[in-house]
Amino acid sequence: MTSRVFPVLALAAALALAALPLRAQVKVDELVQADMLDGGLTKRGTYMSALRISLSDGWKTYWRAPGDAGIPPQFDWGRSQNLGHMEITWPTPHVFDQNGMQSIGYKTQLVLPVEITPADPTRPVRLRGKVEVGICKDICVPGTLSVDHQLDAKAGRNPAIAAAMAQRPFTRKEGGVTSSTCRLSPVDGGMRLEARIAMPSAGGQEVAVIEPGSPRIWASQTQTRREGGTLLAVSDLFPVSGGPLAVDRSAVRITVLGRRHAVDIRGCTSG
């Protein structure tokens, strides 16, 4: 687990090359489309909405932590009007085997719930932006999706948004997590993080995903195994641009993906 190759970064360049022959045959907007769903106002005065990414048959896109064989979506909402704060809820993703490497994402469709706090509650909110995605089937293609949508404050409850919210991972309390500790030890050029999570099984062959909490740190694919009532997850962390490495345990995020459900664990203590 001490390889210094960063597959996610390498794949970004590979995607650009892989897309060249395909673009001559198929336009990206024939493979994937994006639109916004309205869910109206919440009791807190925020807007409930969702970004819907619709994929052609057999294609998939990626989660925020896409594994060794994917790239995460990137969002730019800089042209929006009256946008104060945006809170994204990620539905539980699927784990895929892609050419011998693990990737994490969604197939057919991704409905990504977004709760929006307006900068000025007396004025409407218009979302204008771009979403950079990677989509894969037999070949991987990078795409840029444009969004321009004024949110509808009078819209009613949207079943698609409600279903996506219901697919979110459990919190640590809902998942029965009683403790989560992280032990750090040096490896060549980085640190090894060993997480021990006391929790009931999430079902089947569990996969833990460790996010180090900083875009300046790259995490290798996590090795996951059970020791009775404890889940052990191990990942090697490296600084993306070299130099010293500092890991804030309180910022570490561990998601356990199981057959029955997933569990989202924020932070871990020394152990």
From TrEMBL:
Name used for this protein in its record: Protein-disulfide reductase DsbD family protein
Segments forming domain Thiol:disulfide interchange protein DsbD N-terminal: 48-144
Signal sequence, renumbered to the chain: 1-24
Pfam families: DsbD_N
Keyword presence, Signal: yes
Keywords: Signal
